[in-house]
Amino acid sequence: MSDIKEVIVINKFPKVQKFYSFQKDLETYTLFEVNEEIIVKFYKLLDKLESQSQTILCTRGDSKENTPEHNNFFKYNLNNLFVVGGKSTYNFSDEVKNIYEHTYIENKNILQKQLKTLIKKANDAMNAREEEFSLKTLEYFSDLELNEYDIEALLKLKIFFLSFFHTDGRLRELTNNTPFLSMTYGNEKFSIARKFALGENNPKEKAFIYLYSLNAGDPYYMKTNILSKELNKIGAKWHYDKYHEILLINGMFPHYMLGIFEVEKNKTPKFIINPYLYEILKKNEQFDYVNGLSINQENFEEYAKKLGYKNYFYTTQDNKAMTVNMDSGDEQEVIRP
User: Fold this and answer.
1) Domain-by-domain residue ranges, the chain?
2) Which of 69, 86, 211, 289 could form a disulfide with 252 if both were Cys (CB 3.0 to 4.6 A apart)?
């Protein structure tokens, strides 16, 4: 067990009581306990992911208290999760108001009108939080001559304001249909994710933490601290990034999902290794840092519907992100931040 103890220290990894996985490509599955050799290989992979610039190891806490699978998540839905991935609340909606959509609009007049509304809503939020934010931020955007911007610039402004409302968290219209999924990274990622998973005021008995290897070259994510630094350049102070936040646009791809923890208040009973990753570790194959795992998605839409999704997303060969409505088949291109 000495090898395991060594890599736990390196990764500041929570002490997991038992590691499990299951056989992939099965409608029903049974968890089996993973042997020590696989666990050591897994920890060594985490060390590589932490130390190289091509990847950002992220976590996300989730209680799943508002979903029907809350009590039986590990028993019935892991096979669906590791094929579909984890999506933002936008993907549970049949229809999202145009002003909160994160997809391309070719009409400049409509974009300008939407932005004026978003700026007003943001100003209202800023005025309510004067002790935390500098009003210069939104004053700056209120003074923008939107007519001077082309469509591409207006789209980028829109994705900025949507990210602001997501981080602010009080605009329920967007929170219930947000296109973003928040994750955390860095040395405190496990403790931060645990805090959000279990909650503070009325802590839950059990919750979950996702472990995700983000391709740093992916254009569809934003680091809150970088956004804040850019705003500081124009004299505008914004959100203090105390949770080391990354915003994924649309959500988590299954091919970057390494596994999921079950956590309780004072312990971490189990970690489930993604069965596709388990096969790689077992065969001594290399994890593809850029493209991730090779997932069998033959039953993707069926599994996505079981998880409650109405929409899903994918990237094209030229690295554009698309959203797809599963009922109509309509596709829309996502704004690149």
Assistant:
1) 2-95+183-219+249-311
2) 86
In single-letter form, the type of residue at position 73 comes to F
The closest alpha carbon to 234, from 113, 330, 136, belongs to 136
Residues in the chain: 337
Q: Residues near 223 by Cβ (< 8 Å), separated by ≥ 6?
A: 241, 245, 246, 247
Alpha carbon distance 22, 172 (integer Å):
38
Do residues 190 and 209 make contact, with C-beta atoms less than 8 angstroms apart?
yes
Please give the average per-residue pLDDT across 59-64, as a whole number.
87
Question: What does the DSSP 8-state code read for residue 285?
Answer: P
- Calpha distance 225→247 (Å, rounded): 11
CB 251 within 8 A of CB 166: no
**CB 196 within 8 Å of CB 265:** no
What's the Cα-to-Cα distance from 304 to each of 230, 257, 262, 284, 326, rounded to whole Å? 37, 16, 22, 30, 9
DSSP 40-54: HHHHHHHHHHHHSTT
Q: Among 84, 86, 82, 87, which Cα is nearest to 22's? A: 82
Q: Residue 207 pairs with which residues in a beta bridge?
A: 263
pLDDT (tens digit, 9 = 90+) per residue, 108-151? Answer: 999 999 998 988 887 777 666 654 555 566 666 766 788 888 99
Q: What are the φ/ψ torsions at residue 209 (nearest 5 degrees)?
A: -130, 125
Vertex 57, ends 56 and 58: CA angle to 5°? 105
Distance CA 177, CA 284 (A): 41
Range in 64-78, 82-96, 118-132 the model is least confident about = 64-78
- Give me the sign of the Cα torsion angle 181, 186, 192, 197: positive
Q: Is the pTM of this model over 0.85?
A: yes
Check the CA dihedral 144-147-153-155 and report its sign: positive
61 in Cβ contact with 207 (< 8 Å): yes
* Nearest residue to 92 via CA among 309, 259, 248: 309
